[in-house]
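R.M. (postdoc): so does anyone remember the format we settled on? I'll just put the structure tokens first.
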């Protein structure tokens, strides 16, 4: 995961937390709505950055080439 991917992930989580508190969300349905709104905040910011830089934020570094369990067995 790149620094930008981590930053946008953290933005989505922080936005969700703030929206949950502001809306006084209680229960699954209200929390789900708050989570979608938080994701929209991070998504719009990511798209805006991609548009302005002409570069994608999401990279292929997200994918493991082999499962973590196998890596641990080799070392």
């Amino acid at each position: 995961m790149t620094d930008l991917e981590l930053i946008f992930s953290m933005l989505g989580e922080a936005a969700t937390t703030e929206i949950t508190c502001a809306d006084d969300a209680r229960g699954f349905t209200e929390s789900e709505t708050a989570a979608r709104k938080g994701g929209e905040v991070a998504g719009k910011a990511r798209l805006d950055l991609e548009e302005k830089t002409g570069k994608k934020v999401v990279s292929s570094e997200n994918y493991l080439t082999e499962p973590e369990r196998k890596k641990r067995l080799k070392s």
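R.M.: ...and that's the designed sequence above, right after the tokens. Also worth knowing: The first helix runs from residue 3 to 23. DSSP finds three helices and no strands in the chain.
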